[in-house]
Design a protein that fits this description.
- The chain is α/β, with parallel strands linked by helices.
- It has 3 domains: about 10-80; about 115-170, no CATH class; about 170-355, von Willebrand factor, type A domain (Rossmann fold, 3-Layer(aba) Sandwich).
- It is built from 10 helices and 12 strands.
- Strand 6 and strand 7 form a beta hairpin.
- It starts with 9 loop residues before the first helix and ends in a 6-residue tail after the last helix.
């Protein structure tokens, strides 16, 4: 076979790299503006006007190329919106960004600690037992056993057979519960965009690598609301309180219908519970830890434990009321809790998800 080598112009290479950075920047802005393409384009032009993007970068050509690739499209009145291609690009970008920061080899399959029937073969072997799959027989070791037993005579018997061990591969049903209360965008820190990025990355991970798994996403503010995975780029925080109890109730209900052996809730929050639902009314108290709200919420936490649902809490704040509540939640549920900043939230959650798949979590 003949190979041909081409010279890559340094200027062209620089342009390609610049375009890659532009695309990453565009995706980041898209998440921050909840999928509003026109606003994202305005932000890009504003960044260029302020000197953050070089004057030699042709943003109009960049936007035209994105439209040509059907990342976004225009409707009859000329308004611009993301397409299914654009939404998929956002998921892929979030997945790639988070996974590049994880240790190599952490992704892939997810075995339990127990040996047994499965699809992933181990190097270790054991004696053949009636009912073992014949394709798992280690021919080399079986023949060695026969030669050793017969002192050089090749007379293979059942007692000589060895089979490869396998690992159980388990499946997970996960609900990602995202706090959309007002504190997620207050105090000059955007916490909702990293949460959206995690949800997008997990969607890409599960749909491409673990298709037998289940991922559901819900938002909880004054009330809890389940959202479709296609709606993730458009999530926004609002002027809401934190109804953690209803979020856990809805998550538990979603998991009750799943057949996967591992059931877990990933709770992303930056505030203490400040609301519960009573009939058609919402009881709210944003001041301190209201014992009525806390106790009702912890009752739901215990119910999750009794139904085998593990809660892993990712705290985006460290104020004492939240820390105290999460510590009690974790003890009651026998789950896990992590402090994560908006900058490493994705690494925490995806690493924990993969680690959970190596064992039964209840």
């Amino acid at each position: 076979m003949r190979h041909r080598y081409f010279h890559l112009d340094p200027a062209l290479l620089q342009q390609l790299l610049a375009n890659l950075d532009l695309l990453r920047l565009f995706n980041e802005i898209l998440l921050a503006v909840s999928g509003d393409v026109e606003q994202a384009m305005e932000w890009m032009r504003e960044l260029q006007a302020r000197g953050h993007i070089g004057e030699d970068v042709d943003l109009d050509a960049f936007f035209e190329e994105l439209e040509r690739q059907r990342v976004f499209g225009r409707d009859g009145d000329g308004s611009v919106s993301l397409t299914a291609v654009g939404e998929r690009r956002l998921r892929q970008s979030a997945f790639e960004e988070i996974f590049t920061s994880l240790a190599r080899g952490s992704a892939g399959y997810h075995p339990t600690r127990a040996h047994g029937e499965g699809v992933e073969r181990l190097p270790e072997t054991r004696s053949y037992e009636f009912g073992d799959d014949l394709h798992r027989i280690d021919a080399g070791r079986s023949i060695q056993n026969a030669l050793r037993r017969t002192v050089g005579e090749l007379d293979l018997a059942e007692q000589d057979l060895e089979v490869y061990e396998t690992e159980h591969l388990t499946a997970c049903a996960t609900v990602l519960a995202i706090d959309v209360s007002h504190s997620m965008v207050l105090y000059g820190e955007d916490r909702i965009t990293p949460a959206k990025k995690v949800a997008l990355a997990m969607t890409e991970l599960i749909t491409t690598k673990y298709p037998k798994d289940f991922l559901g996403v819900l938002l909880f503010g004054d009330r809890a609301e389940r959202v479709e995975l296609t709606a993730l780029p458009y999530i926004e925080a609002g002027p809401y309180h934190t109804n953690t109890r209803e979020g856990l109730q809805m998550a538990r209900s979603m998991l009750a219908r799943r057949k996967q052996p591992n059931k877990q809730i990933f709770l992303i929050t930056d505030g203490k519970p400040s609301a519960i639902t009573e009939g058609n009314e919402i009881y709210k108290n944003p001041f301190g830890l209201d014992l009525k709200i806390v106790n009702r919420t912890l009752e739901e936490v215990d119910l999750c434990r009794r139904q085998g649902v593990v809660i892993t809490t990712f705290m985006l704040a460290t104020d004492p009321p939240l820390t105290q509540f999460v510590e009690k939640l974790t003890r009651i549920n026998r789950g896990r809790a992590y402090f994560a900043s908006p900058y490493n939230l994705g690494e925490f959650i995806l690493a924990d998800y993969i680690r959970n798949r190596r064992r039964r979590v209840h």
